[in-house]
C-alpha cells in the first residue's frame, strides 16, 4: 500500500492571492493530509497460448495456366512439398518464384533424387515417388524496335 504526505498548496498560492482575497489564505484544519492511492498487482501475460498461432497462408499462389511476371511467387511451403522445374527458382524459405515472364505449368513427375538426398536409397530399392513440379513457359520476345543505321 502506497501512502504519502501531501503538503497543501495554500502556502504557495497565498502569496499571490493574498492581495486579492485575504480570507482564502487561511489553513483549513491541519497542514498535512493523508492520501491513499489505488494500486493494482502486476500480472504476467502468457506468451504461448495453445491454439492462437497465426496462419501462414502457405500453398499454391499461381495456378496452372496463369500468366506470371518475373519474381512473382508461385507457391509458399514448409519443406519441399512442391519442386522447382524449368525457369523457376527457390529461395531460402522454400518459396518458388518465377525466373521469367510466362505461363505456369504444374506437372506430376517421378522424382529422381541426387545420391546425397535422403530419398535416394528408397528410390534405389524400387520406390516410385511422384511429386508436383512448377514450370514456366516463357513468352516469346518479339522485336518491336528496329535499329536505324546512320546514313
Automatic annotation (TrEMBL):
It holds the Pfam family Ribosomal_L27. GO terms for biological process: translation. GO terms for molecular function: structural constituent of ribosome. The keyword DNA repair does not apply. Gene3D superfamilies: 2.40.50.100. It comes from the Eukaryota. Keywords: Ribonucleoprotein, Ribosomal protein. Coiled coil: none annotated. One of its GO terms (cellular component) is mitochondrial large ribosomal subunit. Belongs to the bacterial ribosomal protein bL27 family. This is 39S ribosomal protein L27, mitochondrial-like. It comes from Biomphalaria glabrata. The gene is LOC106058821.
Amino acid at each position: 500500500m502506497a501512502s504519502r504526505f501531501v503538503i497543501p498548496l495554500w502556502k504557495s498560492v497565498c502569496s499571490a492571492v493574498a492581495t486579492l482575497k485575504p480570507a482564502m489564505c487561511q489553513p483549513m484544519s491541519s497542514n498535512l493530509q493523508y492520501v491513499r492511492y489505488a494500486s493494482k498487482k502486476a500480472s504476467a501475460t502468457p506468451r504461448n497460448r495453445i491454439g492462437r498461432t497465426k496462419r501462414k497462408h502457405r500453398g499454391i499462389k499461381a495456378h496452372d495456366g496463369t500468366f506470371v511476371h518475373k519474381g512473382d511467387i508461385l507457391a509458399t511451403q514448409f519443406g519441399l512439398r512442391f519442386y522447382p522445374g524449368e525457369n523457376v527458382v527457390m529461395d531460402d524459405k522454400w518459396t518458388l518464384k518465377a525466373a521469367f515472364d510466362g505461363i505456369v505449368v504444374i506437372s506430376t513427375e517421378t522424382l529422381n533424387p541426387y545420391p546425397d538426398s535422403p530419398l535416394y536409397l528408397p528410390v534405389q530399392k524400387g520406390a516410385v515417388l511422384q511429386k508436383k513440379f512448377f514450370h514456366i513457359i516463357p513468352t516469346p520476345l518479339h522485336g518491336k524496335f528496329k535499329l536505324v543505321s546512320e546514313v
